[in-house]
Each structure stands twice: as C-alpha cells, then as structure tokens.
Design goal:
By secondary structure, the protein is α+β, with helices and mostly antiparallel strands. The chain has two domains: 13-179, 2-Layer Sandwich (Beta-Lactamase), CATH 3.30.450; 196-265, Arc Repressor Mutant, subunit A. It is 61% helix and 13% strand. The chain contains eight helices and five strands, in the order ααββααβαββααα. The protein has helices at residues 12-38, 46-60, 87-100, 104-111, 129-134, 168-222, 226-240, 244-265, and strands at 66-72, 79-84, 115-117, 140-148, 151-160.
C-alpha cells in the first residue's frame, strides 16, 4: 500500500502557499542555526548567549511570540540563569519558577521530553500555571528540553498569544533548533565557569602578599612558626565571619598606623 501526500487533496493555490510557508520556515531555521553557530566565536558572556538563543528561537519556531531560555544548575536541577526575548516571557517564567514551581519548562526538563499546549487556560497538566498564564492573554506553550547525553541542562520555552499556535511542524523545527542550542548553552556555561575560576585565582594571588605581611607581623609579635600565625589568622576570620584577606589587611593597616604614630612621636 503506497502512502499519499496530504497536500494532494488541497487546491493548487493552497498547496503553493503551504510550500512557500514551509520554505520560509526552513530558511528562518537555517539562518537562526547559522547565527547560533557564530555565538561560539563571539566570546559573549553566559547571559548574553542565552538572550541571543532566545531571540534566534523566536525566528526559528513558527508561531512564537516570545521565548525564554532557562539554564539549570548542575547539582540541584534548579533554574540558575534565565533569559527572555520579551518582558511578558520574563513575567511568565517568574510565575513558573518562583511563584508556583509548576509549568511546561519544569515538565520538559524533569521528563526530558518536548511538551506543548494549545489552550493553557484549561490545561490539566499545570492546573495552577495554565489558567494564570491564560489570564495574561498567553494561550499556547511549547517547551523543548536542552539535552546533552540525555541530561537536561535547561529548556527553551516558547509562548504564543494565539490558541493552538504550535503544530507538529513547529515542534519538529523547535527540536531541530534545540539540539545545537543545548551545545551552545553548555559551552557558554563551561566558559563562564572557567572565567570565574580564573577570577578567583587572580583574587587569591593578589591577596597573598597581604596575608604574608600579616603572618610576618604576628610572628614578630608573638614568635612561633608561619603555620601557627596563619592558623591564628584563620581563627580570627572564622570567629568574626570576615574574609581571611580582610583580616590580614586590618592587621597590616593597624601595624602601619602604629608605626607612623611612633615615628611622629620620636
């Protein structure tokens, strides 16, 4: 039995319009993927990458009025960084994550599958989230997990003010976009983590001379080894809930103040 092309039953004009729309959708997806690939070499920060991904997704997915991108923390699976292409998306995400802890992104990330709804006001999957967002005039949602080796690193949340805005084709194009988007988001996350470690190392290196000076001052006052002086510094830091370098800086500043006072009196 041979399959039949469903477009064959359409009038020729409608078939032409459908093909034109399909070609336009494919072109939008291709352009969005091209710009997504360019993010790797742009050296953008993590939040900037997420904002660009959200903007590209609006164009790549037919019917989208706004898109949010959520990055989940690796340890607890909670939303870590959010980006939105439009303020109304940020409002919806606040309802989803902070107010209700219920919604399409949470379902997509936990179950690692695409979910969609064409009538949020009556959606039984999210009985609190759906009606509340429907009252905002947003009626359709399409959530796509960002998967790496079956692990969800985040999700793309697509919203529309129209009912039944996302069909199978929109879901297919969304999933085609989500696959490389997951890689781009993950790479940006790795880069941000590496940059933070570098900054921490630089701060540690810059604070070392102050700590060494404080250790020398304590040894001059009390005698003892460098290890004992460092232990006293650490105990003071913990007791006062103050950073070690700040305790060291205070000791050095106080020693300098006393030395100047003695000099002025001599």
């Amino acid at each position: 039995m041979t399959g039949t092309d469903s477009s064959a039953s359409l009038p020729r004009t409608n078939r032409a319009v459908s093909q034109i729309q399909a070609d336009a959708d494919a072109a939008d997806l291709h352009e969005s993927l091209r710009e997504l690939a360019a993010l790797v070499t742009d050296g953008l920060g993590l939040e900037d990458v997420l904002e660009h991904v959200a903007t590209f997704a609006v164009r790549a997915i037919p019917g989208a009025d706004g898109v949010g991108v959520t990055l989940l923390s690796a340890d607890r699976g909670q939303p870590q960084v959010l980006a939105a292409s439009h303020p109304f998306v940020a409002e919806i995400d606040e309802i989803q994550y902070e107010t209700l802890n219920e919604g399409p992104c949470i379902t997509a990330a936990v179950e690692r599958r695409t979910v969609r709804s064409g009538s949020l006001g009556g959606e039984k999957m999210w009985p609190r989230f759906g009606p509340r967002v429907g009252r905002l005039g947003v009626h359709s949602a399409l959530s796509l997990p960002l998967l790496l080796s079956e692990r969800a690193v985040g999700a793309i949340n697509v919203y529309s003010r129209e009912k039944d805005a996302f069909d199978d084709r929109a879901e297919e194009l969304g999933e085609l976009f989500a696959t490389p988007a997951a890689v781009a988001v993950h790479n940006a996350q790795i880069l941000a983590h590496a940059q933070e470690l570098t900054a921490q190392l630089q701060r540690a290196l810059s604070s070392r001379p102050i700590i060494d000076q404080a250790i020398g001052i304590l040894r001059g006052r009390n005698g003892g080894s460098a290890e004992e002086a460092f232990g006293k510094l650490r105990a003071m830091s913990q007791a006062d809930h103050v950073k070690l370098v700040d305790v060291a800086q205070h000791i050095v500043d106080e020693a300098v103040r006393r030395a100047r006072a003695r000099h002025s009196q001599s």
